Amino acid sequence: MELILWRHAEAEDTTPDLSRELTDRGRKQAAHMADWLNPRLPPDIRILASPATRTRQTAQALGREYERVSALTLGASAEDVLVAAGWPDAPYPVLIVGHQPTLGQVAMRLLTGRTGDLTVKKGSIWWFQGRERAGQLQVVLRAVAAPDWL
Fold first, then answer.
1. How high is the mean pLDDT of the chain?
2. Where are the alpha helices (DSSP H) in 41-77?
């Protein structure tokens, strides 16, 4: 299974938190990452986004169908994200558009098997692949990309 974590792009510093919109810079970040992602995404990708406005606006930059998933909202746990994605057994690849620190916690868990935090930069993706080798799950980090690197 492939799992892509995409942190929402830069958002306004306003309240309420769930209604924060992307800034002009954030829209450019999302568009730039979407331009890089679109030709690389598998055709059967399932895209899941937090109900927060900024995550939905980030997902919309792809120009594809996505699902709004309440379990991915602010304060979600790493386990919430992995359950929503169906990790590691989903029969399709999944792209999650979400928030820090949750996405960093998912990345830490996938890379080390332990709890903790990693920093996922705004607008960035972390692309993982789960595969079975000798009866055990192996996690491969396929890519890390930030919109300003592309």
1. 96
2. 53-60
Q: By three-state DSSP, how is residue 81 classified? A: helix
> Cα 53 from chain centroid?
15
Write the burial class of residue 9 (CB in 10 Å: 0-12 exposed, 13-18 middle, 19+ buried): buried
pLDDT of residue 141: 97
pTM (predicted TM-score): 0.97
Q: Does position 93 have pLDDT exceeding 90, yes or no? A: yes
For the ranges 24-28, 53-57, 83-87, 129-133, the lowest mean pLDDT is seen at 129-133
How many residues are present in the chain? 150
C-alpha torsion angle, residues 118, 121, 124, 125 (rounded to 10): 0
Alpha-helical (H) ranges within 43-139 are 53-60, 78-85, 102-112
The Cα-based distances of 64 to 34, 45, 53, 60 in angstroms read: 10, 10, 16, 7
Task: Identify the residue whose tokens are 């890390």.
Answer: 144
Other residues' Cβ atoms within 10 Å of the Cβ of residue 24: 9
Kindly report the CATH number that applies to the domain delimited by 2-145.
3.40.50.1240
Tell me how far apart the alpha carbons of residues 2 and 141 are, in angstroms, rounded to a whole number.
Answer: 10
Residue 150 pLDDT exceeds 90: no
